[in-house]
Amino acid sequence: MTHFVPDGITSSTMPGIVRLAFGAPMQRVENRRTPSDAGLAYEVRRIALADDAWLETWVVPHAEARGVVVMFHGYAASKASLLPAAVLLHRLGYATMLVDFQGAGGSSGTTTTLGMREADDVAAAFAFAVRRWPTLPIALYGASMGGTAVMRSMAIHQLRPAAIVLESPFDRAVQAVRNRLALHSLPAFPLAELLVFWGGVQLGFNGFQHNTVDYAREVTCPTLILHGGRDSRVSMGEIEAITANLRSPHELVTFPQAGHEALAAVDPAHWQARVGQFLAQALAGRT
Q: Residues 119, 147: one domain?
């Protein structure tokens, strides 16, 4: 769940003993579409990190931008998954910057930490956006794991965006793994605990301390949480636990017919109306 292999390597090309010990490989997600496929002009910008690592971003400008939304994708995805939302944000009058976490798309790396180290990527992207748009209010948008990474970054890096929009973030890392196992009809206990423990040993972090419900207490800006009514990977109970810990003004909007997917693609009109209203109010008068 934490290591990706290059496109083209499949379980059939791996030795049987490797498949038995470690399972089928997770394919590294590449970007199959770009903003130009969605009718948007864009620039590719690379953010340099330590140890020769980098983040690849797509900057989608707007001639009369009301603000900027920096966008982060979910687990086992890439920034191309953010295009439906980026199109609607452009219509609403916002410039956007779509970011590949390390291990995905055009960024460096081959691993994921389910939002833990990705919080550092959020901080680096936010700092880049502040330099690029010093006079515009900046909001952060995170889908699933991206939402957790945004909230963790605010907790540990003290980021102060003007607002945040989150789609279906999980409440605790171990619960996210339990939900994934359940989808494959595998026993959640003790497999979830073992996976969280061993993943942390491999990558050097404590996954049992990676809890969005705890990060929520450090959020200080207006927050909009979006959630699908048929989401099988993040329950409404998890979302309610997060919102209960938010100390800033917040709102929860549901999409009754949606699962754990890009909500802007499921119901564009509803998404645009609710996100547009929220951002207009949250960013009014902000610089």
A: yes
